[in-house]
Amino acid sequence: MSAWLCAIDHKRVGILYMLSALLFFLAGGMEAMVMRAQLAAPNLKLVAPEVYNQMFTMHGTTMIFLVAMPVLTGFGVYLVPLMIGANEMALPRLGALSFWLQLFGGVLLYISFASGSAPDAGWFSYAPLSEKPFSGGAGLDYWALALLLITGGSIGSAVNLIVTIATSRAPGMTMRLVPLFVWSTFITSVMIIFALPALAASLVMLLSDRLLHARFFDPAQGGSPLLWQHYFWIFGHPEVYIVVLPAFGMISEIIPVFSRKTIFGYPLMATSSVAIAFLSYGVWAHHMFAVALGRNFLAVFAASSMLIAVPTGMKIFSWIATMWGGAIRFTTAMLFAVAFLLEFTIGGLSGVAFATVPVDWQMTDTYFVVAHIHYVLFGGTVFALFAGAYYWFPKISGRMLDESLGRWNFWLVVIGFNAAFFVQHFLGLLGMRRRVYTYPDLPWFGALNVISTIGAAILAFGILLFCANVLMSLYFGAPAGDDPWNAWTLEWAAASPPPLENFAEIPRVRSRRPLWDLKHPEAPDWTRA
Amino acid sequence: MGSPFSPHSAQTHLIAAVFSVVLVIAGVIFLVVAAGVIYSSVRYRSRGVTAAEPRQVFGSRKLEILWTVVPLAIVTGLFVITVRAMVLIDAPQESGQTPDLVITGHQWWWDARYPNGALATGDIHIPAARRLLVRIESTDVIHDFWVPELARKMDAVPGRPSYIWLEADAPGTYSGACSEFCGAQHAWMRFRMIAEPEASFNAWLLRQIQPLAEPTGAAAEGARLFRTKKCEDCHALGKKGPDLTHVATREFLGAGISRNTPENLALWLTNPQAAKPGNRMPDTPLTANERAALLAYLESLQ
Amino acid sequence: MTKRDQLGMTMFLIAEAVFFFLLILACAYFHALPRLYAPWGWILTALLLAGSVSIWRGWRWGAVALDAVFLVGLAGTPFAMLTAVLGLFVLAGVIALAVIPASGRRALSLYWYFFTAVWLVIFGVAGQV
Predict the structure, then answer these.
(1) What is the CATH number of domain B218-299?
(2) pTM reported for the whole predicted model
(3) CATH number of the domain within which C64 lies
């Protein structure tokens, strides 16, 4: 026990991140199920309006800050040293501190339930609704303090990952040769350094308003509610890519291995991530298209928001080109990766619809947005995470996840997810607004909502099956061996699970696929270009 | 609730057209991606265990240029469409022109003020087939004015009024609602736009500013209680609660949460928190007689 | 080792720079900047500058003492959110310098220079009374 509490080894810290994220994922999932139950039919009164509002606020905050960011950080902390041929993170104590800050933030957020007033102003807590006169309870103070701690933890882990990737690479591994997961983690970490401080600044001002009688966001006293929106989304939109880019990185590792082909267009894959990172700082106002900000201002943000679809599209086509001509093995990991391509494309395309300002003027803050963000964050990030979990679990635990349970897991998640969220596009088109605790009995509303609720239940079952698979496989799974997938990156050269010191001898790297070079001395990658 | 795809104004017609273009483009792109994914999944599925690895392809300059340039061309086209549509849909924000209507969001209802001093709460009347310049305001938090069939949505930001074009090409009733989360009862912040032919709209508008007949009988007692029980401290223009001058003509109570029946109205008098949980109306102790008198008065407010 | 510490500290300070830039911008926009009485502002600035020089010359306790006096002086100025947040960071720096072994001090000195610079910006834009 104390070995885990005091752990500074990157593998233990990484596992702690992943486990805490899994627990919060179940909590956030339960909040979602409360919402879906309440919305199963028109005019239901299962929960009070305030409770419903707490549910979606906690669900959003949990899934972004306590699930998506920590689990991706966890994968990063676990895998990056292994992938770059290092034995530890560059700053191991900072790594542990970052995790505990993050976890304490999460615990503080959930203590707000015990205080009797959980935050209920939504995950972006627009001022002045989040100000004292309209949200008098302590919920938003918990929310802001918890997010400040989490911000500190996120910046800490980002610093650590940057320094590790910059200074701890195996001899011969230039930045042009690091695996794409490492690349995307590096870019994500740089984005965190530039984006999270905007959230911290917003939160400090919100707390000043709420606790010290400042007036940053209160229009009645000369403040500006729009300042909150600008600052929050300067953080908030890069944040979307912060929780998507590492998922892209995972897909870029998994598709090649199961297609038996190297990634198609590595340089373009890396540079498109950099392009996404740069552009993501210039798109924040597309969350504010329904505010009268001036036509030219909006047009600039429409342009940048549409432009960001281009590097994203390049990635999708490069992944397909990687599969093309391969010898594809449909393991559960590959199934999730292929499903990711389709689900994420839907989310990306509805994103382009929102960049088209007049469409946004109708569809923003409807269920069309709810569908869009879930296709990006669940269909994108979570599908990639499932793929990553099936792919790397053997390395982490030394045992294989069960493949037949894995298929059930996969099909239940695919069917449940699409049933739950695809119909929400139609609900949005019919005029159903997001964040309503109930709705009148309008044509189709009841039918589509009950489909969504049934889908959510199937999805929940699929996720529980995953948890069961993890628990069972930890004890009964088939032994994995060092390299069960016949893969090419350095983590598969270490034992499964890797010992405290990952590599007895640090390997020398000459190409992007060091293990391919070992396995194919007749045609190593480094002879090609 | 109306759909953006049942447009009833020039502006929403244009939005529906732009949206259709986007959906078609998105549909085609999705089909291309899906075809690529499914074809390679089926065609290149590994059959049996073969030791030999497939041919390693590291990239293709030509293909990469293709899928940079084609998407770039598509979004450039979309951008042009977007900007042209924006110019036609969006109302000038600083024209100095007097608005035809001032619509204000409150936690949690809407009202509208007309140039002649008339006030409408919940059911907002407009003349059909006339483009109106509407000013959107908020008295407390951020709301969002949305009538999908008639106009773009527009945030109501406190201290920062904004303007939209509002138009209904035919008489009819169009539903609207607040579309920015604004607190406990965001769900019930609905309203109706009632578009009428010019003549009947003008008649309605005049009726709103004519004084009502003096109440008689129980209603007169109710009118007295309305003052002495301090109902009017909140229920008046510019105060915390919705104005009740013509409450009996409304179809709904509580911005859509219940139909305007005597029983539902009585519930607001006995237990407002049961009528609409979280709303700002406090309990006011009333005897059964007082309640009946107030109810009679409110029902008389045509 | 020190190279990694310094790179890490630099990254952290970039994040802090974004944070303070946005805070100072908002405070300037809303006229919520701190107000400093004429001699005090200069005295506080001199203390921080002297603290930075001390750490540069390797006088650890001199730097701790100078910045501790700065914090006491800062507590005497009219309360402002910006100076309060800065004060917390300086306090953390003082504690860190007092407890961290010599190997970590190269990176820590960057932290000190940075917050001296932030103070100079705040002092530059603050209202003088």
Answers:
(1) 1.10.760.10
(2) 0.96
(3) 1.20.120.80
